Amino acid sequence: MANNHSAVVELGIGAPTRADVVAVARDGARVVLASDAVAAMEHSRSVIDALASDPQPHYGVSTGFGALASKHIPFERRAQLQRSLVRSHAASSGPEVERAVVRATMLLRLSTLATGRTGARPVVAETYVALLNAGITPIVGEYGSLGCSGDLAPLAHCALALLGEGMVRDADGELMEASAALSAAGIPPIELREKEGLALINGTDGMLGMLVMAIHDLHALVTTADLAAALSVEGLQGTDAVFAADLQALRPHPGQRDSAANMRAVLDGSPMVSRPEGFTRVQDAYSLRCAPQVHGAVRDTIAHATLVAERELASAIDNPVVTLDDRLESNGNFHGAPLGYVLDFLAIAVADLASMSERRTDRFLDVARNHGLNAFLADDPGVDSGHMIAQYTQAGIVSELKRLAVPASVDSIPSSAMQEDHVSMGWSAARKLRRAIDGLGRVIAIELLTSARAMDLRSPIQPGPVGSAVRARLRTRVEGPATDRYLAPEIAAAHDMVLDGSLLAAAASVISTAGGELR
């Protein structure tokens, strides 16, 4: 794990930013609690302490949980109640969830604690801070959350580590018992009091963390898809006339406007999109001509998901919750529907973006549609297969993305003896979106690899300044056309450059020199 200890994220009673979440989850930024958060937590804890001695039952303070909410718990057994809650709910199974996802989940639960609406003591939040800063990451299995009553099982595994129980990985990624990791880091395990076990597990933090990271990744990937589409137009000797600003303004979707602007900037000054005398093709196929419309719809979907994420980041999710006028009230704010819907919506958009990319790649390989290039872009078709199977790889990924686009949020399985009779499945929606985004990056990488090869095969005609710069950057890792080579490492190299942003940076550098920018 990268540890950027120079970066510090301060958590107060206000919302963390999306950049804060990414910095802590992926870059190891340190976390501190602001004084206003500590004061808010101390105040709300006084509310819980007052209710603890009240003979009237209060959910989460002096009662059981879920379908057992009607059972009164005597004072001397309430610490056991909170421990038992965490232990019993740490029931996940399956492959280990990625470190960045767990750290994002921890940060967002900590953020809600810092609002002072949960009634947890400051020491609970301070121990969470200590775990994050020490790089101690609880082991969480992929299965266990229904996305209602919060991401219960994932958050319970995180809470268990605060007690010095369960399994974790240390800052070096070594698997060990939580008790040993906390001892090595000098962190005392906590003893939970009334309400605190519930406060630690009752939130939408896992699905929100994955949504925030998905938004971060998709902003870069949709712009890279604009770049890839433009280079495909170039390599297929299409036209850039359809991307003109006045044509796009006739349908004023902001995402479409931005994608078209990117494609115009990439294609500016390219000899490959000029029209030689005698040219008879008046318009390109939809996968080229309609790229701004599809890519733009993806951008607008991301914008909607961002709005939902920002609202959720500003939320205090717990049940019951300490209100601003010091009441302890049950509520349904833990339901993950708002997140589940947009996570599924993004998976649909990702699948369609990848599908269009694959269609452009396929055009390069077919002599009936590639306008003068060798079959499959092979050096010697028949002896060589060129990029034939690279497109198979794309097609296999796209087919998987279509399956992943089936919404998880339309499903619901009743639980807790029918007390929790409608659930969001938002965690499942988030997990499949992560897989979809991984596939999208690979599909775009193959399109870029293919369009660069096509440009080389058009010689002596050369691409424009941006296309030349991107191709040159790619050629630092992948050789130009020749007889067939081991193709998987070349796909992997292109994928690496999509993820690290170096191909996008090569394009942006040329465009900025000309006074423009990628959006």
From TrEMBL:
It comes from Terrimesophilobacter mesophilus. The gene is hutH. GO terms for molecular function: histidine ammonia-lyase activity. One of its GO terms (biological process) is L-histidine catabolic process to glutamate and formate. This is Histidine ammonia-lyase. Keywords: Histidine metabolism, Lyase. PANTHER family: HISTIDINE AMMONIA-LYASE. Its EC number is 4.3.1.3. It catalyses: L-histidine = trans-urocanate + NH4(+). Belongs to the PAL/histidase family. It is an enzyme of class 4 (lyase). GO terms for cellular component: cytoplasm.
